Amino acid sequence: MSYFTAINRIKYEGKSSKNPLSFKYYNPEEVIAGKTMEEILRFGVAYWHTFTMDGSDPFGNGTMIRNWDRYSGMDLAKARVEASFEFYEKLNVPYFCFHDIDIAPEGNSLRETNKNLDEIVQLIKTNMESSGMKLLWNTANMFTHPRFVHGAATSVNADVFAYSAAKVKKGLEVAKELGAENYVFWGGREGYETLLNTNMKLELDNLGRFFHMAVDYAKEIGYTGQFLIEPKPKEPTTHQYDFDVATGLAFLHTYDLQDQFKFNIEANHATLAGHTFEHELHYARVHGMLGSVDANQGDPLLGWDTDEFPTDLYTATLAMYEILKNGGLGSGGLNFDAKVRRGSFEQEDLFHAHIAGMDSYAVGLKAAQKLLNDRVLEGFIEERYSSFSRDIGKEITEGTTNFHELEKYALDLRTVSNQSGRTERLKALVNQYILTAAAE
Questions:
Q1: Which of 49, 99, 279, 354 is catalytic?
Q2: Is 102 a catalytic residue?
Q3: Which long-range contacts (CB under 8 A, 24 or more apart) does 301-305 make?
Q4: Rounded CA gap, 25 and 366, in Å?
Q5: What DSSP letter does each residue of 234-249 carry, written as one string?
Q6: Backbone Cα Rg of the chain
Q7: What's the pTM value of the predicted model, to 2 decimals?
Q8: What is the pLDDT of residues 108-148, one digit of tens each?
Q9: Annotated catalytic, 404?
Q10: Smaller CB count within 10 Å for the chain: N or C?
Q11: Are 180 and 139 in contact (CB under 8 A)?
């Protein structure tokens, strides 16, 4: 059965095309620095936002019109699988991602839930084999059900900890069965509301124990995908333990997990933490911890996680600059953890949204590669820090000086000459490269 009968396979038609159901900038076969766009960008579709989200929000009921919603229970789950693979094929993306309860309904017990999951996983596997689609990552939803009211791995209830461990155990088995290239941990409720009733040390220790158990079980079953932590500062808890990359990195080092995990960084989560997207990508990259990306954006006028499709070319360019500097994303990719707006309720809007995001990152990729080729930012930064490559600066960076020698040097300084950071000039240059890339 076809769920998108009016939609043909989306093709690259170039920037002059008037066809809204075509790529204007994303050409999967175009080669950039020795690799195709498809190989570099590794786009993925988020199953939850695309096939299960109904458009409801805290102030209104769902608005989405989805022709698979006429089914219910396991029939609905199977229809969504069929619709999803038709969507992937027509959009021409190589990857998808899901939470466990996105693809199969929960039963009256975990045993029943796992039975449902097994049936749908086999259906997905069959479709993957026939289509060539790949699973970028999967994860366990441990934040929606009321049992997770106090968290999952950081819950005050040992029964919930055990239940969460069983869900992740199953998730890792599914990851191996479907060849998931990564497995994500998003601590949706791993945090606290108030210290008045919280044993933070116990909760963090338990989270560390939980992750070590996951690492051990992955080794036991031979699952070799990359483990990823996805930072988020707030929503739903007031104080999240995975606030940002820096907080997450400190946690990983504290519990000796830094060699087993990298970060899945979401743009909207970065801005909620008070950072730019490129800041979080950069921080992860320079510490060798950049693993994958959730490509979306937030609304600067709203203070919550709006998960909009990415259309900001400036941010996309700086994101791709960091990703290219990282040598790519390895087993990671660009997952569109984004949802169409509540008013964009027709099925065709799912294609328009993904096309917009894919075109935006295609422009960002081309502009970022040109910036790197011309060493626009590298050259400026090297010159700005050049005092550390000679004389006293070189002694500082090589660790061959001390406070006594630095004092002796400083006491004889009559003037200190600084140079302008040229912020506005550099921003104008980035704009120039973006506009050039978009005009090609």
A1: 99
A2: yes
A3: 303/272, 304/235, 304/272, 305/232, 305/235, 305/268, 305/269, 305/272
A4: 10
A5: SSSSSEETT-SHHHHH
A6: 24
A7: 0.97
A8: 999 999 999 999 999 999 999 999 999 999 999 999 999 99
A9: no
A10: N
A11: no
